[in-house]
């Protein structure tokens, strides 16, 4: 059935000829609401009717409606339909009015910033855009069973527990810690009890907590070279010295401690980030011996270990020994989706109580209803099933990208350590190439690759590009890669 709102949306939708269907529809509806073409309390067309009018999939319309409802543009009234919310325009009049010179950017005033802030800004590496072709570290968020998760969240809302609606001082919802204990023991070989688990808002908060709690200004930490930039920025802002340790096909190469021992040793043993090597058993045992002898703590970042596409899963370093000197950190950002902002730390028993209290004082944990819903999601088997499904999907997409690199750029363009795992690949470039400049050109063309050289603290010994593939549709991979290959070839020919 045709409606006035449907006509408004139809006109705005077909006015946009570029972009994916769901993005075009989202922009058409949200901008129609904001510019007043769809007024508050206006009835939205039923999803089936709108899909027929626009000749698109109903699932696309449902997905956009869910996003708009989550952002407060529209709301659903039980058995009555979907309407534009009254509150969506409430704050528009309070926004600062654009000046006549608003097209000119406001100059930054960095004179008021602290030295550590300036240092962090100098080394900032997060991409300004967090969705696009080849962006590393991003999972497929479309195939996540959102409706199933919503069922568990709705159950928590219908029957709320008071302890889930106040501040958290115990390191997270107990039901999630219990569910994680069972999962980590089975899937990752982690040795722990629920009281050793602390739930955090993502892996960065976990790393910051551990660094603040265990390091004094001037202490040092070993990091992988190349290694994750986020760890190094957290060390910098906490005034902890960075000692980069080289990486080979067996993982981090431990060195001789000269002077004071490192307080922390950061490693990604199951899938080294970004190169992809797997730490050997002998190297793991050596590292554990160093930590015990020197009184250091190993921080094991197990960020995407679930996604191995051949062979047996690599067990955690933490589980090799009883009461090992290892702080194990994991995240749901890779297995579910980043915006969930949930990670976890498995603490040695001697650190559990003080770090939980530290976490409560610094961060005031919350989101307990979401955590309880996630515990049900895990406990009823949906989490393991989702990982199995994504493992197959990512393995297929990875193979497509490997075949493209081999066919277009040659076998030598594949990274040094092809461990057949993870959410990204390394596209190797000549050592004398400028991978940062190539990445800038690609980014300007909408291809969100990252230069390998940015992951080094000291001398850059390898050049390349990080290509994320997990979130890309299969049909999107070839045209995007051919576009990237043309940029690379033109740059190398100059």
What does this structure look like?
The chain is of the alpha/beta class and 494 residues long. It has three domains: 4-91, Winged helix-like DNA-binding domain superfamily/Winged helix DNA-binding domain (Arc Repressor Mutant, subunit A), CATH 1.10.10; 144-380, Type I PLP-dependent aspartate aminotransferase-like (Major domain) (Aspartate Aminotransferase, domain 2); 385-493, Aspartate Aminotransferase, domain 1 (Alpha-Beta Complex). The chain has helices spanning 4-15, 21-34, 47-54, 58-70, 115-123, 146-158, 174-188, 203-214, 229-237, 281-294, 349-363, 368-379, 382-409, 435-444, 474-493; strands at 74-77, 81-84, 197-200, 220-225, 241-248, 251-252, 264-267, 297-301, 326-331, 343-346, 424-429, 450-451, 463-468. Strands 3-10-9-8-7-4-5-6 form an eight-stranded mixed β-sheet, with helices on both faces. The chain has a three-stranded antiparallel β-sheet with strand order 11-13-12, with helices on one face. Helix 2 (21-34) packs across helix 4. The chain is globular and about 75 Å long.
